[in-house]
Amino acid sequence: MKRTYQSLAACCMLLLSACYKDHGNYTYDLPEEITITGIGSDYDKVSLVDRITLDPKVSSTDPQAEFSCWWGIYETNVQGSAPKVDTIGRSKALDYLVKQPAKGWVLVFGAKNLHTGFSKIVTARVNVITQFTRGWYVMKHTGGQTDVDLFLTPSGIIGEGKMENVFSLVNGRKLDGAARLFGYYTNYKSDVTGAMANTKGLFILTDKDVSVVNMNTFKEIRGFNSLFYETPATKRPGSISEGSSANYLVNDGRLHSIYSMSANVGMFGGVQLRDDNNSPYNLADYFLTLNYYNPFFFDQSSSSFVSATGTGTVLSSVSDATGSEMSANRNNKTLLFMGIVASSPYTGVALFKDKTDAGLKILSVITPENYTLKIVNDTLDAAEKLYNAQRYGLIVTDESILYFSVGNEVWSRNLANGAERLQFTVPAGEQITFIRHRKYTGTTSTELPYYFNYMLIGTESGGQYKVRVFRKTSGNLNASPDFVLEGQGSVGDVIYIAPSMSNYTYPNSY
Amino acid sequence: MKKILTLAVLTAALAACKKDQYYLYNDIARLQFGPPIAQLYYNLADMADTLKPYTFYYEPDAVGQDTVNFDIYAIGGTSGEDRPYELEQVMMEGEENAVAGVHYKAFSDVSLKNTYVIKAGEVHAYAPVIVLRDASLKNKTVKLQLRVKANGQFQPGEIRKLWRKMELTDRLSQPAAWNNSATQYYWGKYSRVKHSFMVEQTGEKWDQEFFNEINADYALISFWRLKLRTLLTDYNNAHPGEPLTDESGETVVFP
């Protein structure tokens, strides 16, 4: 019994230790909420011309709130360094002349309640722009040299003014060769702002030269002689493209790359090997690629498809998918045209001519998956218009239709059923030099006047070009173009540039 | 009996409790090697530069000696006076050890009398090793391990930081930057034949300085990998059945 009492006493002593007075300083007030209004999400400003003038409203659930405010701005997309915030104001209202070089910046507004110590920060994107950051760019050649015309679009997608020969105007020279292809990449690395950072770079390819210019100033960042770690002996650019986290430049039929997911200085590496024996190869100018998917090229020498990575030293071999109607390797064909037609699923279209039977032409729909290709063939009859096509332009990722020219006629071919239809006949005396589909869509309210979905038909006559810009309905051109871009020379490519565009705005294709 | 046993176990367990002998570096001045000053507060570089290969291969014939520096640090604060310190060679078993006076100047050489000193007001110095271009180095590589030696000014610091090693030769030698990682991902297994091929075919030195330069730019590494692979493929194509083979009989490859 005594032991029982002792045990109970011990237990009571232990339980007593659990009793203590709670001295917690709990507060059941709602957390303070600071509200800032009057700051938008995006601003386009011209450097040294426009001001940022804002006076946001700041309020708090704390009735005794008293705010200390500040403004800052910092550069985005820098490489290898942390961006620094420059303080540009220490009061609630801001009236600041934008002095930053043209590129993307972030505006920061901070409000601190001096009574509670709580702060809130709001940011807005600031696109510092120039006259070069918006408009239609037309790459044209005359007299064996290429230049670029800019059609300004200050209030809508239709050009209202023209700056001729902006490349030579800014850089003091023209590019050698005939105009071929634009490539626009907002992740191109350069130090044009003083720090190595993503730069809006526009590649201008001719058949004898290449230049990448800063989209904000149109100043050349690198020309052919500074674009490679080892300058190729022959200047014969074929294509510029992007795929599987790398940029690819075909020159003289051979592939160079920049792996874009690691730090780089915007220079292309050496010639990727065809195989372990360094066999000769000759890539066609046409290619098939899509964002992060594997790119595909066609080796005209071996009549074989190849792929590549940005980090590899040897081109990747490609094999046949189940159900493929033609081998991806040694198929005895010459590639006449290839491009992307759909992004989901990743699908391309190619036109081949047989090396043995020159009369045999095949239109192929290509579906890549990893490093395999499913090729479904449609042998063309000599009576079909496409059989004699000279220029090509796919409606990219929009409709399954291939546009092409025969003489002075522009035709379309429905890739699903093979139906061909005359879309437009250019006036006598004009030669068709270029067909291209361009599309820019989105939901940003300030960009609404600039969104479009156009087929562009370029012609040349008497040393003058015309680019007729057609809207299309169900794959068919409207009866007349929305507007016409005109100038001197013969057109190779046209691109519309806007400050908010990225390198994914336009699929890479001829 | 049971109580005696319990008492014995507890007594034995108590014996396991003892205070660890941590250096607090507040007793006397100590000395130890360390990473370059720029990497002093970078943990991963704590044991950087423990081995420095050196070769006279790239130097003109007239060069008879050179200096290799190691970063050395005094622990325990500065002093108002210069503080001499001492180094000594440690013989490595099974290795071709460098010979003082032949392959390097002895640390006690009279010409180095005032060389091994931590200057007043400082805690860092470069400990120089004067390497000598002996004719024997044309055909072999010798190793030198040096160690901090206690003297009247300094006691040794952390045990793992008391030593440094050198590999000395007059032939091509594996640069420190051609480490395990570089071997696995970029250049493959080191051989003098491969190294010589790289130098001869590209016109670059492929020494430590060159590796440091290209290691700063992944795209540049990729460029040289591709370039070397292409050059080797072309060489092997030009010598059918006789691919480039290294000094141990293995076919040279770049990954």
TrEMBL record, chain A:
Cross-referenced InterPro entries: PKD-like
One Pfam family, short name: PKD_2
Domain of life, source organism: Bacteria
The protein, known as: PKD-like family protein
